[in-house]
Specification:
753 residues, TIM Barrel, globular, alpha/beta, eight-stranded parallel β-sheet, Maltooligosyl trehalose synthase, domain 2, 14% strand
Length: 753
Amino acid sequence: MIPASTYRLQVNRSFTLDDAARLIDYLSELGVGAVYLSPILQSTIGSDHGYDTTDVTRVDQDRGGPEALERLLTSARSAGLGVIIDIVPNHLGIEHPIENPAWWDVLRLGPKSPYASWFDIDWSRGRIIVPILGDDAQLTVADGELRYFEHRFPLAPGSWSEGEDAEAVHDRQHYQLVHYSSGNTEINYRRFFAITTLAGVRVEDAEVFSATHALVKDWCAAGIAGLRIDHPDGLRDPLGYLHRLRSLASEQWITVEKILEAGEELPKTWPVAGTTGYDAMREVNGVFIDHDHEPEFTAHYQRLTGDQGAISDHIEAGKRLVVNTLLPAEVRRMAALTRDIPNAGQALAEVAIAFEVYRSYLPEGVADLDHALATAAQRRPELADTIDQLSPRLHDHGDDLALRMQQLSSAAMAKGVEDTAYYRYSRFIALNEVGGNPDQFGIPLQDFHSLQVARLNHQPASMTGLSTHDTKRGEDVRARLAVLSEIPQAWAGFAELFLSRTTIPNRLFGYFLAQTLVGTGPIERARMHAYAEKAMREASDGTTWTAPDPSYEAAVHQAVDSAYDDPQLRHAWDQLDAKITGPGWSNSLGQKLVQLTMPGVPDVYQGTELWDDSLVDPDNRRPVDFEQRMRLLESLGDAPPGIDETGAAKLWITRQALRLRRNQPSSFTGYDALEASGPAHDHLIGFDRGGALTFATRLPIGLSAAGGWRQSTVEISAPHIDVLTGQRWSGTVAVEDLLALYPVALLAADDHK
């Protein structure tokens, strides 16, 4: 049951399942094949994302509950739309134990709880460590519970009496409340990355799987179209999990949130359609970047920041930081399995740091493990003998040590690369994206075509995306940044001015912030301040989340204000903004059409059918004005709108592409590159999907500077009609005529030939 396309909705207490149901007619009119929901199981009260499920037995009441889900399913079914649901098998939310019945019971009864097997707890260390206390640990006992301010914890049966000292009662529990700063070193349960309020779940246990997936099984039986699986890399046994899932979702389209590095392939044994599309995003972004200007861009970066290192240096430093500061408890637990090997903890940490992909999937991915072992030994020759001793166990996919290494390396990659190095290395931040490759400055056109042939051959039903709830910056921000790759001198002039008129101590972050300003344009100041705060703390190079540096942060915020208020700097910003806005729109429309028509199942992230200037979450989870979009869609009529700040052209192109995919699926079954002839041939991306022809402009500034399309032509072998403009084409066609109205064209076979 493969949908023609999907439309992702972030469901929360402010946008419920009933609100989603009211959008069904709009989504149907837009051409969407399936509505794609963020997690809807009961989560922490007030959660805006739902990835902190607290009760797997019910649909979240704040999101509308089971009744609203049924209304949505009915509405979607009536409109012919499928429903895709995002599920979170790796962890449960435990921020407020009282909200999680399973965790509450484990805290109350310890290892004897029937739910003890649900969680990956190291009981050999005694009580469950709960890092929650501040400097003033005032515990009380009330109503049969242990209280710490608003935090509530259960008491073991018979462990307290009236009027007894709270500290003494605490000492008898199956858990130990400790200072919050001890979490990363002392915690004894597996977490999601380094988040202590998300406890890992042992879905590798058949009974735990069945208990935590009972509702999922019901949804599949009710006919939902598919499932999106969050963070499979955190699982002990992803392959085993996916086989169990497939047994209860035999007809469903399943995609996994697997981040593939450039050149990495999804394990062929996984019974899924593919990934959630970050790999496709990297390819689409890359083909709109001017590869030829890499040397000049790099020279400006090195001159203005003083950073002579490569991205690999920042990745190693970022991973080393998180393994040593955020993940030592995980390393300690692994080292406890190797007490007979001296320095095992250091060696295991070094191996995790050395992985160039998220993890291996033993017995698959042995080459990645071997490379990590060799790299670790090379970096730390004094640990080479220890690494050799650990190697047989790390290769044994039945060994607890090997399985935990795979979970550790994925956490080190996510936190050390995406959430640290990508906020530090700022040569060109359009590349610093989830699943991105900052070392690859653009993708040549022929390479892009080769990648699409491979996608068609190996994962034709994989999801493709341009924006998600986790992307570091919105799709149109990246499209605007891509323009800078064509004008390195103009970009460097603005960056130099920004750095000279602000006082950010870290020039790499100053350079990073300057690009962000250009990428978004002058958005609301409060949003830019909020983003700057998150970005500089994620970089952990001058200030951090746990130890903010007031003077450093003040300098960053002053720099943001200067961009808005300093007349000279604001003038330069406005000038550059004016220079890139038109080409940025061209890139935006081009990458949108390419993503919607390339091999795979295209996803539209909520609201991105119009221009999207979002930054990293929570900015990209802001409420979407769907009323505006519905009005605009209704007003489109049959004539293509102009390209302007309303984004109507992007909405038009999105609608026409989605409708064509839904109405003519047979026209999207192949892939052949279509090449232009003439002096501007390299500025045209063209491909034939088996009847539907896509054309898009790339590198628009360079195209204009060279005199436009000039005598460039394309061959259209049979009569076609452009579903964007209504124009009919056949034979040898001048590109400047084909793209006279829009920088893109989408041609379908002409039934009136």
